[in-house]
Design goal:
single chain; alpha+beta; Aminopeptidase; 8-stranded mixed beta sheet
């Protein structure tokens, strides 16, 4: 888990502002207050004091952001207890799943579905819009999001000229890449498209230098999809935050 946590610590500041606060790396998105894009990561083995936690909280409050952390519990096992003692609450626990080249299981796309890498910014914008809709978000995509995503390994799924899903593998650092944003629009789910997208993205990441691909499934159902293409649970990630009233 320390290797994966080091990867997140290295990549989370990309495109964001960051600040060292005691044993934490705090990251702040430049153009959105979305909680999932504004969070802190503890150092491996951190044992934060109440003062450290108060300083971290204040840094987010000053920016009118929800004080929030995401981290792998095995890398910093004392942090969750220290945070909850100061009023932080658990949002959720999610499994961390990994896949090596030897474990990967390739999956063909269903008949009528074409998988390919985006060939232009127009493709990227359409892909992001489809992902946003699949996740229940507005379809609008900013130029900054397009700029940031150019460095990803992305795959889109098409039926005719309609993009119905996709996903990405993020930067490869130290032989590790995170697979994220796997999404299929509601009317095309349950056909094996998500598994095919995940397998293709994972293959791309492995072929381009990643010894380990990892992801954090949003629920048990999608975790089952990932297991079909070779992912196995390796640990857990916790999300904690401090409500405004605290």
């Amino acid at each position: 888990m320390s290797t994966l946590q080091a990867y997140v610590r290295a990549t989370a500041p990309n495109g964001r502002d960051s600040e060292r606060i005691g044993p934490f790396l705090a990251t702040f998105a430049r153009d959105t207050g979305h909680p999932m894009l504004n969070y802190a990561i503890p150092d491996d083995g951190a044992t934060p004091s109440p003062t450290d936690i108060a300083d971290l909280t204040a840094a987010y409050r000053r920016r009118d952001l929800l004080p929030r952390l995401e981290f792998f519990t095995e890398a910093a096992p004392a942090v969750e207890t220290a945070l909850t003692a100061q009023g932080y609450v658990l949002e959720r626990r999610v499994p961390v799943m990994t896949c090596t080249p030897a474990e990967r299981v390739d999956r063909l796309a269903p008949d009528g579905v074409r998988l390919r890498e985006p060939g232009s910014d127009h493709d990227l914008r359409r892909l992001w819009a489809a992902q946003n809709v699949a996740f229940g978000e507005p379809p609008e995509v900013s130029d900054a999001e397009i700029e940031h995503s150019r460095g990803y390994l992305s795959v889109l799924a098409e039926i005719g000229d309609q993009i119905v899903g996709g996903g990405s593998a993020l930067e490869i650092v130290g032989g590790v890449s995170e697979v994220a944003g796997i999404a299929v629009t509601a009317e095309y789910r349950g056909r094996g498209i998500a598994a095919a997208i995940t397998a293709r993205i994972t293959r791309l990441a492995h072929e381009r230098g990643a010894d380990t691909a990892f992801l954090t499934p949003g629920d048990e159902g999608i975790g089952t999809v990932y297991r079909r293409v070779g992912y196995r649970t390796a640990g857990e990630c916790v999300h904690l935050s401090l409500p405004q009233s605290s």
